[in-house]
Specification:
Number of helices: 16
Distance between the termini: 22 Å
Bound molecules: pyridoxal-5'-phosphate, iron/sulfur cluster
Number of strands: 13
CATH topology of the largest domain: TIM Barrel
Order of helices and strands: HHHHHHHHEEHHEHEHHEHEHEHEEEEEE
Strand content: 15-25%
Number of domains: 3
Shape: globular
Structural class: alpha/beta
Radius of gyration: 23 Å
CATH architecture of the largest domain: Alpha-Beta Barrel
Strand order of the largest sheet: 1-2-3-4-5-6-7-8-9
């Protein structure tokens, strides 16, 4: 009888999530895939292209939408919206791949992908800093950012498949695509060779997967040839914005240099589509270890059920949620910021309500390049008698002694 009651109680916890899910758009559901297919046809007509071209990642990059005129033929825009985009684009560039734009539901003014991809007048707010992380100040040589004892970042390009309005690297994005020069890459690799304490190298950008296969594979091969480098990581959003980029050729080329970890940035369940699922399966089948680094974004995923659903759906395509980033104070993106409390509430909800595998670490990138700070909600408090009062995931209070044995419930 007692077990039965407990069963019912546990079941009741899932009700709110089940209800909330009905209102969260998901990229793999029937309605959403039909909408995207319709938009795809519209775009192909506009560009006089066919499905073969659609599936070609070069075509996707070369035909990124970056004029209001083209955009208004794909999505209905008011005169005001058109004027706002024109104002914003003279300060911050924008470009959206045909694939990513096809995922926007034209009928939903609150569409999460629309908010991520389409310029907003709020970007012109004067708030925020240019380089709060002082990345420029942590660059010993070449294209390196180093803040930690045993690992560093090498920045190989500033190009991306689509530009995110919330980009936390907006400083690098600039106004034109450029690939980091051969000399800077060579200097960076030389630095890693000379620093035997570096065992973990992150290749990032921009988006490294916008490089041609041979260029990227050459960089990876050179890093792999350094004996003290244990793991290589690639940070990319291409599986989200241009999943066509994950080709057999790329995967076969890169997998010679395992262990390679690939961290992506899915921010909303609507971004997980049949195409991105296919791309991630190809990567996972070929031994890449997949992680996700979500950015916590006001009006997009600052909701515990959206994050729960996103993380559960990521696990289904073998991506382990790794980090949730608290949005930094970066010029042009401050309207996406949330309070730290919003993030902590989400983390508190996840613990217990979903698999531990679906729970990433919530981190803040400390200003001035002081490194990542994990943000944890307080679930314990030391008592005057030396015991510790804990709160369980359900909010039950228990008192434990210093060595963790039960004192009192
Ligand atoms: C985030 C970051 C890393 C990687 O940190 P992990 O916690 O190991 O994922 C490395 N270098 C820099 C400069 C970073 O900002
Ligand atoms: S893909 Fe990454 S680097 Fe590129 S615009 Fe988006 S957040 Fe910025």
């Amino acid at each position: 009888m007692k077990n039965k009651q407990r069963d019912m109680q546990l079941q009741s916890y899932t009700c709110n999530f089940v209800n909330a899910q009905k209102d969260i758009p998901v990229g793999t559901n029937h309605l959403q895939t039909i909408l995207a297919k319709k938009q795809q046809e519209k775009i192909l007509n506009l560009f006089h292209a066919d499905e073969n071209l659609w599936n070609n990642w070069h075509w996707q990059i070369n035909n990124r939408i970056c004029s209001v005129q083209t955009l208004s033929q794909i999505l209905p825009l008011s005169d005001n919206e058109i004027q706002c985009i024109k104002k914003v684009e003279s300060y911050f560039r924008w470009a959206i791949s045909p694939y990513y734009i096809s995922l926007i539901n034209p009928q939903n003014p609150q569409d999460p992908i629309r908010k991520i991809a389409i310029p907003d007048i709020k970007e012109l707010s004067a708030d925020g800093e240019f380089d709060p992380m002082d990345e420029a100040g942590h660059n010993p040589t070449g294209a390196i950012t180093r803040r930690y004892p045993d690992r560093l970042i090498i920045n190989v390009t500033n190009a991306c498949g689509s530009y995110c309005r919330h980009c936390q690297r907006r400083r690098n994005i600039g106004t034109q695509d450029f690939v980091t020069g051969q000399d800077k890459i060579a200097q960076s690799i030389q630095y890693i060779k000379e620093h035997t304490e570096i065992r973990d190298v992150l290749i990032t950008g921009g988006d490294p997967l916008t490089l041609e296969d041979d260029v990227l594979i050459k960089i990876v091969a050179e890093i792999r040839s350094i004996p003290h480098v244990e793991i290589i990581r690639i940070g990319t959003r291409m599986p989200v914005v241009v999943p066509q980029r994950i080709t057999e050729d790329l995967v076969n080329g890169l997998k010679q240099y395992h262990p390679i970890y690939i961290n992506m940035q899915f921010n909303h369940p609507q971004e997980i589509t049949p195409q991105s699922t296919y791309a991630c399966n190809l990567l996972a089948d070929n031994g890449f270890v997949l992680g996700n680094q979500m950015v916590l974004l006001n009006g997009i995923n600052d909701d515990k059920y959206v994050v729960q659903l996103l993380n559960q759906n990521l696990l289904k395509i073998r991506i382990r949620p790794y980090y949730i980033f608290h949005a930094k104070n970066i010029i042009g993106t401050t309207h996406f910021r949330t309070s730290i409390q919003t993030g902590l509430d989400i983390m508190k909800h996840l613990r217990g309500n979903t698999s531990g595998l679906a729970i990433p670490t919530y981190v803040l990138n400390a200003p001035r390049g002081a490194g990542k700070i994990p943000l944890n909600y307080r679930n314990y408090q030391e008592l005057s008698d030396g015991n510790i009062l804990f709160e369980t995931w359900e909010g039950k209070k228990i008192i434990l002694s210093k060595d963790g044995s039960l004192v009192n419930e």
